[in-house]
Design a protein that fits this description.
- Pfam families: NMO.
- It comes from Somion occarium.
- Keywords: Flavoprotein, FMN, Oxidoreductase.
- The protein is of the alpha/beta class.
- It has 2 domains: 7-189, TIM Barrel (Alpha-Beta Barrel); 193-258, no CATH class.
- It is built from 14 helices and 9 strands.
- The chain has helices at 7-15, 30-43, 63-72, 86-94, 106-115, 138-148, 162-170, 180-183, 192-200, 223-232, 240-247, 249-258, 281-301, 303-310; strands at residues 20-23, 48-54, 77-82, 98-103, 119-123, 153-156, 176-177, 206-209, 217-220.
- Strands 1-2-3-4-5-6-7 form a 7-stranded parallel sheet. It has a two-stranded antiparallel ribbon with strand order 8-9.
- Helix 7 links the parallel strand 6 (153-156) and strand 7 (176-177).
- The radius of gyration is 19 Å and the shape is globular.
- The chain binds nicotinamide-adenine-dinucleotide.
- Nicotinamide-adenine-dinucleotide binds at residues 2, 25, 53, 55-58, 81, 129-130, 210, 213, 215, 217, 240, 247-249, 252, 267.
Length: 311
Amino acid sequence: MQWVGLPPLAAAVSNAGGLGILTALTQPNPEALRQAIRETRKLTSKNFGVNITLLPTINPPDYEGYAKVAIEEGVRIFETAGNSPGKLIKYFKDNGCIVIHKCTTIRHAKSAQRLGVDVLSIDGFECAGHPGEEDIGGLVLLARAAQELQIPYISSGGIADGRGLAASLALGAAGANMGTRFMCTVEAPIHQNIKEKIVASTEQDTVHIFRTLHNTARVFKNKVSTEVVSIERRPGGAKFEDVRELVSGARGKKVYETGDPDYGIWSAGVSVGLIKDIPTCEELLKRIEKEAEEVIDGLAKLKVPNEKAKL
Ligand code: NAD
């Protein structure tokens, strides 16, 4: 949700009954995050969280600075993702915060559990952005979470509707995390063309870049991502410097500003194939809840023939 997790969307998600999340690195520096938190508070009286993602970046961010400012501003729910968040987790827990850590393997989930996180966000291979390097789909990953984890977990990756939520609950999750689906809402602060592009796309419209650099990222399939993949496949492979200009986040940001889907790299999950409209966050969450209840009720009815068979 880099460049998308901004105050209007985080507030709209929280106002609709979800937990909106500001993405810290979308802000150029910690003081800008402070202003974004204040702006969000003006838009919602509900809780919201801040995400801090630790992955390779062109310019190293001041992670501790972002964390400190958010705590000073009274944020008490954090989502961490990416590499070794140990230091940050300790800092958040020392300050009485709830920490949700996103991970793509059970090994990492167990290690985060040992470090004291409160909730795990179990991120299947369907997800937008960085799915890790192990390629484990959500179905197995969530079922493995049910076998192995002692703390609550939510599903992440591939969730965009009530069926996805019901499936997540069936797999032991306490809820679901959605990114791509929220990009395609009225309140998402991105160009209308990009929302319409998502609606028009199918589940075959994402691609992995950075596979050969061991920093795999699922992004929308467009001119730039196709070029990056072909550079990576050249004999002898590619170094980050060979694709740096093409993949820079600053260039990706322009996609959302100008509405040109081919301008740069932008994250998108396989769930683009499930997205058929651009509702408000409130319409979306109400619909997902209703659909999930219908699916669960439908499944409950399946028990009846078995009960009769026993008689
Ligand atoms: P950026 O402009 O610094 O980098 C652009 C892309 O190149 C990012 O995907 C980054 O991970 C990758 N990258 C940078 N240096 C690299 C290196 N030396 N080797 C391999 N890959 C390298 O990043 P940005 O777009 O400003 O985003 C800021 C941070 O947020 C990055 O760490 C990015 O990965 C992360 N992010 C995470 C997700 C997610 O799925 N959790 C989605 C979007 C962005």
